[in-house]
Amino acid sequence: MPERANTVKDGRAARWEGQRERRRAEFVEAAIAAIEEHGPDVLTEQIAAHAGVPRPRLYRHFDGKADLQQAVCRRILERLTADLSPIWQGGRSPLELITGAVDTIVRWLTTHSALYRYLAKHSAPAHTGAPPDRSDALTDFTGTLAVRLSRLLKTVLETAGRDVRGTGPLAFGVVAFAEAAIGRWLAKPECLTPEEFGAALVRGIWTLLADFLVERGIKVAPDAPLPQGLAVTMLDPASASASE
């Protein structure tokens, strides 16, 4: 009899947890809609209104305001990652990969500028008051991009029998350069259209990468397609690891 009672109890707990996760996801989507409408300084009351629930009920599904903010930041970046995923296909040239990533990110951020500003404001634990071990969604995202780039460079060098040292710092530096440039342009476009800015950023990124490879005796044609296996394996998000 006790075993049956435990089974019933476990089943109820599982159903409650599943319902809680569904409601969390619904509230996160409502928060994103509220941010798009009201801007990055959206109020909790405005989020609750979009969700169609009173404010206290909203927080029943989150461990406070910081938990909600982190969940929203993660979801924003999941959307951007989904838009980027078609780019990591084989058969593309280095320049096509860089251009595709830059154009997608710039277009996404200009279309969803309120979400980007919310992300920049609330992603880092130091800004949210979250505990130190709380994941920083923006850092996780840029770190994943840097690891992909590092893995790609390392494989190119290994294939040619060249020194692979320095690929990690360079990759993280290139991503940091792109992030800083995009943030600056969004704040002060200085009469550059998204297309003009994107093209300039692509040239800058390619120059950094090409110079790094040339120093190691490798000349990569920017318009030559990468081998199918190289592009797919090295840029597979499921295999990216920030430990590299």
Automatic annotation (TrEMBL):
HTH tetR-type domain segment(s): 21-80
Its domain of life?
A: Bacteria
* Pfam families recorded: TetR_N (PF00440)
Name the UniProt key words of this record, in alphabetical order: DNA-binding
Q: Which InterPro entries match?
A: Homeodomain-like_sf, HTH-type_TetR-like_transc_reg, HTH_TetR, Tet_transcr_reg_TetR-rel_C_sf
GO terms (molecular function) for this protein are: DNA-binding transcription factor activity; transcription cis-regulatory region binding
Return the PROSITE patterns for the record.
HTH_TETR_2 (PS50977)
Q: Which residues bind DNA?
A: 43-62
Q: Which Gene3D superfamilies match?
A: Tetracycline Repressor, domain 2
Give the protein name, as stated in the record: Transcriptional regulator, TetR family
